[in-house]
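hey can u check if this looks right to u? its 731 residues, i copy pasted from the old doc so theres a chance i mangled smth
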Amino acid sequence: MTGAGQLEFTWTTWSVAGSIAATLAAAAFAGLAWRRSGYRPAIAWLELFRVVIVLFAALLLNQPEWVRAERADAKETIVVLCDRSRSMETRDVAAGDSPAALPATRREAAAPIMNPAFWSPLGPRVEVVMHAFPADAATAGTNLHQPLLEAATERNVRGVVIISDGDWNEGAPPADAAARLRLHGVPIFAVPVGSPVRLPDIEIAAFDLPSFGVAGKSVRIPIAVESSLPREYALQAVLRDSQGRETNQEIRIAPMSRTADSIVWHPPAAGDYTLTLELPPHPDETIVENNVMTAPISVREERLHVLLVESYPRWEYRYLRNALSRDPGVELSCLLFHPGLSKTGGGTSDYIEAFPAGLDELSRYDVVFLGDVGLEDGQLTSEQCRLLEGLVEHQASGLVFLPGYQGRQHTLIETALGDLYPVALDPVQRAGWGSRTPSAIALTEAGRKSLLTKLADSAAANAIVWDGLPGFHWCAPALRAKAGCEVLAVHGDLANEFGRLPLLVTRTYGAGKVLFMGTDGDWRWRKGVEDLYHYRFWGQVVRWMAYARNMAKGETMRFYYSPDQPLVRRSVLLRANVMGQGGEPLAGGDVTARVTPPSARARTVRFTPEGDEWGAYSANYVAEEPGRHEVVLFCRETQAELAAHFFVHGGDVEPIGRPARPEVLEELARITGGEAVALAGAERLLARIAALPEPPPRTHRIPLWCDPVLAGCLILLLAGFWVGRKAVGLL
């Protein structure tokens, strides 16, 4: 650093006038004192010393500063930032003048600028420093704010060049960093790469494969396809499993929008499979990398434990019992509180004689059906209702309410089950409403999309099936659905001030699920088709409710999570049930999970207990990347381990095929006084950077008026004046 220094004062009218007045007053007083002493030489020197002290203090009053301008001798630095995120693999940069040539990727198009030879014309006085971001291009998103801030820390920065598509999705707004660079006088030169208009393309936007399926049961897989093509067309989607089996389905792709559909896959046997969805490329398509998506699924043998509790053996109970007992994946237990019987129970092996006693017996059930039962002698008790509520909340079991014309379920509202009851019942009309003519069930918008109400493979066929189902003659006195519940079906005719009467309502309560069926006439669905729709509906209900509990379970531990299909960068609620050595719920245990994402960067998650009674534990986990996450659950007290996994859905953080955002880079250049240069004319960068004015010298100011050394000198001068007065005999 080189430069010269000079003394500067902060003059004001009042400070100058005050300084002159103080100095003249001190001089006048000194002359008067000298004359009074008879013109003694010693007094003359002492008074002159006084005037010097006053003059010194007057100069400090005008805030003197030593100012030195310094100019850097080192090389000036140009920082070149290059975006290497995954979105830079988008192939949308025209290659050459030939329209038939294959477009280049954004990264390939920016490669010449990243060559050090490109910057050599700037000469030896300029040092070019190149940085690529993000550090982990495979999984990280784009953060434009952080590299711009780090560029400002380089020594003698003259300018910043950023080469990117402008599509940022992490960190603070890059405009904040640009404002910081402007304060330092550092301009940004932006080189936008990529097309701001999406090229003709079709993309798999969603492939919502469940975590596991059941052997012998079809799996319906919702998919979504995003299209930027100007016309509608049909394609043959191919679903291929890891054993090479293919399922083909024709899908009509809507133009310039998203098309939702589904594919039904039939698992051949139990085991782990990897399914790949592939869309054939369109002739006009330029990006084919996003036409394929892969996800894993585990197919297993199931054995669901279901408890069916009823009072009178009405038709609804009889046909439901037959449907569940004939399902090969269900182990049914029936409890019949028949008022006419001397004791509870029945004549077949699937009947039990009493309600499960204690947590150990009750916690084995995945789904519990409550028919027309309530708090009456010989039926349920308040303690049993409390246990059912805890079974749903803490152990992810399902609970189905099937009210009857006896109105006994009204008594459950005053128990712990009242909090999870999904509808508000009419306290006056306890017996419900009946009619001689049959009434129809009408699906809501949510019901038409729900897996529970899917009685046919396509949406159109499903609507036809529901319209043709036999009607019902009785419904429960449900006035409205409670807040947070989802209404899947309503009464086709009856309505009140809240709207149509709700008949099929679901909700999530804690870790489990609740369903309310407001009619007992669904056994009539067997008319003309036998068990086709009746068995399918209740089979779907049981498996939907038991889904969470059967994600992963061992002898003493169970692991499940919500939502059922976790999304990348969203919180996942991990839950676990842990039993002690004797099979009782473990309270206050030390439970941890080792979660390993696809990148193998494992993380330990510690669970916290949810009460002391059910052995329930929970933890929150945010998945930073999509794909399969391996989980090892461990309990220190029992030394038990459970291996599980979950699959995080959602597209890449940096998807390929999105349009570039040059307006972001243009704003950065505008804020800092730089310039946005097209990729084709990147040579202008050299001339523009070479024409930058010399950076102003750095000015260093030393405020002398508040310097402690000068303050000490003033004190010494005052002390010397005091000693001088004593020496001449004035004190």
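The chain has five domains: 5-70+700-727, 76-194+658-690, 202-296, 304-550, 552-648.
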